Amino acid sequence: MKGLLVGLIEGGKEEVRESLEELKELVRAVGGNSIGYILQKRTSPDPKYYVGAGKVEEIRQVAEGTGADVVIFDAFLNPSQVANLEKAIGKRVMDRADLVLEIFSRRVRSKTAKLQVELAKLTYELPRLYGRGKELSRLGGGVGTRGPGEQEAEIRRRWIKKRIQQIKEELEDIKRQRREQRKKRESSGELKVVKVALVGYTNVGKSSLLRVLTGRDTFVADMPFATLDTKTSARFLFPDIKILITDTVGFIRKLPPELIESFKATLEEVQEADIILHVIDISDKRWLEKVKVVQEVLKDLSADTKPVIYVFNKADRVVEREEDIKYLTEPAFMEGRAVVVSAQKGWGIKELLTAIRQMVEELQEVER
Fold first, then answer.
1. pTM (2 decimals)?
2. Which phi and psi (to 5°) does residue 7 adopt?
3. Is the pLDDT of residue 151 over 90?
4. Local confidence band at 361 (pLDDT 50, 70, 90 cut-offs)
5. What DSSP string runs through 68-131?
6. Cα first-last separation, the chain
């Protein structure tokens, strides 16, 4: 895939460039290559093309000249915009949702995650079928009749609706099974179980942190969405307390609404958590903006009032020695508890475990 990226400047130019850099990483995650990007400043998106008609012609010429085989828009396009753009540019057109869904469909392993991704893709495809039938068929039929393309689109629509219902029922069954499994875990003898969820922007090192905290072997890669399946591991911090630590899918700005909706079963682990570890890449210059993105998602999940420990990871990228961690000022920007670590080097892990233990004791005090 050779992709030409397109973005709209409605606010700050720097914010748009940051979003396009993230889009570039998403292209890399599907094995593609970004050959450049085109920006246009507008007060609002064009209803027909998203960008202006003149800019569409520029995109067509640049795509033709550079040999791009796909044009990727840093936005969520509606079905008619995609159809209009493909017709005008003569290339395949993708939006941010198409790219994210493609990554998810390639990476998922568990049955649950596969169902969730299939649900998201079908939910996104359904509205795009409306109107496409007429484009597929311009032949035959009188007034009130349908051409072959429209009939084909209608059959596909019916199948998608039926499949969506089947997947939702399967996911509800999985949710029930998970609730029963949690009850069994929590009711095993006198053992106290504390649930901890790792959350954070994508590629902040959550999987590396899970591996260090629990000793569990997990897949780690320097790219967006390296981990898509929920993973839960246990650790004993006290003789009578078991900590269940769950890694969750990383968040990004402009996450497709269909994905948020379809991943309820995975994100339910966040809703069930007693403590949230919000992992942050301290070496990222725009870390504070990404923290706000994650906080907004937590708010959408009604999980924004849970106890949080902010874990500033990747400290080895900004200081050379573990003892220099104490000079880093980023934690001062956060309200509440914050710890600086390097999951890669093992720095600050004792301090993190101490912070978790203190929070567990506080929760126990509240329960008494």
1. 0.73
2. -135, 160
3. no
4. confident
5. -SEEEESS---HHHHHHHHHHH-SEEEEHHHHHHHHHHHH--SHHHHHHHHHHHHHHHHHHHTT
6. 59
